[in-house]
Design goal:
mainly alpha; 2 domains; 4 helices; about 110 residues
Length: about 110
């Protein structure tokens, strides 16, 4: 995750510098952060932690005042877990992770 986040941050900051070449000097003297320090990646190894993290993600849009209830947030997996509906967030579709390979040549 660190490598993915680092690469993304570098691309974003380079893009900002290209858009505002007159302000490029400002970026040299300032800390260059895209990700907030308080966030970190966390490996979920137990069912208890999986449920805890899902609850946090599902409840967060409501806590932030973006929607009155979790099922109204379009980009959430809440409806998939709670109602079994398919939505914008793909849930437990492991075929997405499979590598596409060509059949062996005989």
């Amino acid at each position: 995750m660190a490598a993915v986040k680092l690469g993304f941050a570098r691309r974003v900051l380079a893009q900002v510098r290209r858009r505002n070449p007159a302000q490029a000097a400002l970026f040299e003297s300032m800390p260059q952060h895209v990700w907030q320090k308080r966030f970190y990646d966390f490996n979920v190894f137990s069912e208890h932690k999986r449920i805890e993290k899902l609850r946090y993600m599902h409840r967060n849009p409501g806590k932030r005042g973006l929607v009155p209830s979790p099922e109204l947030w379009n980009w959430s997996s809440f409806r998939a877990y709670f109602l079994g509906e398919t939505g914008a967030a793909r849930v437990n579709q492991w075929d997405v992770l499979k590598m596409k390979t060509c059949p062996p040549v005989e």
